[in-house]
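Side project, low priority. Logging it here so it doesn't get lost.
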Amino acid sequence: MPDELHVTREGYERLQRSLDKERERREDTVASIASTVDDAMDLENRSLNAAQLHSDLSSIEARILELEDVLSRAVVVEEGNLPRDEITLGSVVVLHDPAHDRELEVQLVSAVEVNALAEGVTQVSDDSPVGQALLGRHRGERFTVSLESGEVTYTVRRITTA
């Protein structure tokens, strides 16, 4: 499969739900366009409304194509096949930040499934500096990551699967 995208089961399902919602939005927008054209409002307002709805429809169509492409290339990483003692895609990791004496819980996910609005565990993309540094690490390992704000050192405290 060209350019496979490894995703978690949860991420795949979330992407599928997004695609379903976008398809519903497309149907609603098409119905609104038809309704606008049929309305008896003056010609100028009807044209402006139709133009806006067509613009909305174009962006919805683009998002649908993007989601269909991602889902067609997605390969779900099954938990049963993952090592329990090594950080891989889908791992939930507790990191200790000694500089601030705090612990962070993050889940390593692919870039296409990161959801900034997701509730619960903070998601870290596998192509981010922290994500790349996490891959393959084991409990107890200490590592340093260079970020825009400077270098940050973490210790892996715990690894679990989602």
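Brief comment: The first strand starts at residue 5 and ends at 8.
Revisit when time allows.
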